[in-house]
Design brief:
This protein starts with a helix and ends with a helix. Helix 1 runs antiparallel to helix 2. Helices cover about 65% and strands about 0% of the residues. The chain is mainly alpha-helical.
Length: about 55
Amino acid sequence: MSDQDALEVIKDLRKFNEAGVLLTPESVDNDPLYDCVLSHAIRALEERCGIAD
C-alpha cells in the first residue's frame, strides 16, 4: 500500500467518525480523540506525499 492509498483510507475513517458510524470505545457519535489522531495522520501523510491542502 502506498502512502497515497493509506491517506485515502484514513480520510474515509475520518468521514465515518464524523458521521458517527465509526465504532470506538469512547464514541456514541463522534469520538474527538479519534478525530484528532486521524487529522494528524492525514496531515503527516499529505506532507509526506507533497500534497498541499
